[in-house]
Amino acid sequence: MKNYQKFAAVYDSIMDDSLYDQWTDFSLRHFPKKKKAKLLELACGTGIQSIRFKQTGFDVTGLDLSQDMLDLAAKRAKTVHVDIPFVQGNMLDLSSVGTFDYVTCYSDSICYMEDEVEVGDVFKQVYDHLNEGGIFIFDVHSTYQTDEVFPGYSYHENAEDFAMVWDTYEDEAPHSVVHELTFFIQDEDGRFTRYDEIHEERTYDLLTYDILLEQAGFKNVKVYADFEDKEPRDTSRRWFFVCEK
């Protein structure tokens, strides 16, 4: 467990902290003003965004596939004295979590779904667990990001107690990429342990997302880009969808 905690700490340290501020600000601009609204954060990871939402005044539940990540999230919430239920679960089946006023799924987590059928299934699950008039906000990589920016991307980081190599390649399916991550993390005895991870991500064109959201039942869908309240351009890297039930 100690190694995993270090591993997740490495994840958190390479994540640009300002993104959480931007996700929070974007959400607050697009959620209706409602006191004590119930919010479900999908793919909540180590809980940083869930805590931001809780501190803003929402009644937050966090859901993630990884129990290890959730253990860290619970520990983090306890440290800052906030009470958030963190639920281990799959966003393809939300039957255990009840209903919410708002649902978010940030950090391109939808792009980890295997195909558009799964993406559509997530949208339907979210729709079914939103209260009437509820809002679902998520972001995904643009096709420009997967096709032009990511292939050939390489990032290396060296710190005292860890090193990381991150390479991204084009994958076989349209608009899909593979991230190969290698971490070297220092143990208590000073030795470095190697961890390898492969992350496969896939996105779709705007029309596909629109159709899948409509099929799920969403009636009012707005699309923005790169944390701003502006329409996507050809070179936008991250698309944001604000969907109303």
Describe the structure in your own words.
The chain is α/β, with parallel strands linked by helices. The chain folds into 2 domains: 2-142 and 204-244, Vaccinia Virus protein VP39 (Rossmann fold, 3-Layer(aba) Sandwich), CATH 3.40.50; 145-202, Single Sheet (N-terminal domain of TfIIb), CATH 2.20.25.110. The chain has helices spanning 2-14, 18-30, 48-56, 67-79, 116-128, 143-149, 206-216; strands at residues 38-42, 59-64, 86-88, 100-105, 130-141, 154-158, 162-170, 176-186, 192-202, 220-225, 238-244. A 7-stranded mixed sheet has the order 3-2-1-4-5-11-10, sandwiched between helices. A 4-stranded antiparallel sheet has the order 6-7-8-9, covered by helices on one side. Helix 5 (116-128) links the parallel strand 4 (100-105) and strand 5. Helix 2 (18-30) packs across helix 3 (48-56) and helix 5 (116-128) packs across helix 7 (206-216). The mean pLDDT is 93. It holds the Pfam family Methyltransf_25. One of its GO terms (molecular function) is methyltransferase activity. It comes from Streptococcus ferus.
Task: Give helix % range.
Answer: 25-40%
Count of discrete structural domains? 2
Discrete helix count: 7
User: Would you identify the CATH H-level superfamily of the largest domain?
Assistant: Vaccinia Virus protein VP39
For the record, what CATH class of the largest domain applies? Alpha Beta
Strand content: 25-35%
The overall average pLDDT, rounded, is: 93
As residue ranges, the low-confidence spans are none
DSSP E strands, number: 11
Keywords: Methyltransferase, Transferase
GO molecular function, one term: methyltransferase activity
InterPro entries: Methyltransf_25, SAM-dependent_MTases_sf
Domain Methyltransferase: 40-134
